């Protein structure tokens, strides 16, 4: 399959984006520089093209039951206009993907899934459809833009002449922006206040330009990763995979074991009872260095006791930060732990997550 | 892309300046542009013996790790010890920010001149 372009590709090039291939798409990794863009989102407002993400509609009388069975969080708590973040598990408790569930009404839900998993997720959803609901992969019908930062609300209101005061965190509304019908949710992947906008595929470029003209900094995939890591948000393929459970990943607040059945529940209940053998922790380094994906966590005697899933030098905090799975035994027995960076063992210090939050 | 005419270049985007039997090695403007904001530099030990192709050290940006290599055989005589505290100098002045000096006995016969390197990076981007 050849690499595809989002409807905002030309606008990226026009604004000086450095284009790379990502999950089968041509997307900008940066425009004015990763650190510059990262800081713009933390202090001001940035805009991301995330049209490569996937969307699936769930329609039918039993839509609510289908969704509750599919995901680990309690989507029965959703009401019209509410959004929920949740992992989606296999029967063995491993993770298929993490996603957002938007409840339109009792008979209609919109699921927003990761770009790299669209085909896999859609097949999985069809396989688990014992409820006779209609599933449609509408990923190619929607552009998606993320407008993120402390000035995001101010910019959106001025640019589109709308009032977003009543649009609360993890809620969504239908709105018309520049004559384009859109879904606008107060959600994001940066740890800042912000919005995600969905609309008809071909209209994405027009909105992107309008928001940049209003003062948002164009941002690429590079800072998207440093921002989400500072907020300790999961990246599928790195921190969560088919081989990890949401309990091990520390996203257990999004797993509701006491309210209804869902795929993988039994395994997770058992894992919780027996105790976790490994846990995803946040950490920094006690000396200079940068932890990276796949670097090993070792103990004093060079035994491998864990692995780094994500790591970087945090632009906002100015320190190295990372997430790693580590054997619970080692976390509890006071062992000194290190990350193996090339030939050196660099001592790590566990840190509470998120490393940064501003909403 | 900035390519200086009085230097030699490698396929791995290092520049090399030769004065007598001392080679001064750095990374090119092209390399820093590809890496993005550089945040970490790891330099070799003074006195280390190196051969052509050996990893001399590492340059890291926020998003990538990149080894840099020796294009000569000899011993490391000096490293630019101010760089690890200001790695961003590699972005703002790649040719003015040398990394390592090596007293050498042999050099990589495949070192390119400025013209050949300019052509090489043009080809890479086709």
Q: Uncertain regions of chain A: pLDDT < 50 for 5+ in a row?
A: none
Based on CA atoms alone, the radius of gyration of chain A comes out at: 21 Å
Quick one: overall form of chain A?
Answer: globular
- Beta-strand content bin of chain A: 25-35%
Describe this structure in words.
The complex is a heterodimer of chains A (359) and B (126). Chain A has 359 residues and is of the alpha+beta class. Among the domains of chain A are: 4-51 and 140-230, 2-Layer Sandwich (Gyrase A, domain 2), CATH 3.30.1360.120; 277-351, Elongation Factor Tu (Ef-tu), domain 3 (Beta Barrel). Chain A is 22% helix and 34% strand. Chain A has nine helices and 20 strands. Chain A has helices at 9-14, 34-43, 63-70, 118-127, 152-160, 204-213, 221-230, 265-274, 328-332, and strands spanning 4-5, 18-22, 25-30, 46-49, 54-59, 83-89, 95-105, 108-113, 134-137, 142-148, 172-177, 180-185, 194-200, 217-218, 278-285, 296-299, 304-313, 320-327, 337-341, 344-351. In chain A, helix 2 (34-43) packs across helix 7. Chain A is globular, with a radius of gyration of 21 Å. With 126 residues, chain B is an alpha+beta fold. Chain B has a single domain, classed as OB fold (Dihydrolipoamide Acetyltransferase, E2P) (Beta Barrel), CATH 2.40.50.100. Chain B contains three helices and nine strands. Chain B has a six-stranded antiparallel sheet with strand order 1-2-3-9-8-5. A three-stranded antiparallel sheet of chain B has the order 4-6-7. Chain B is globular.
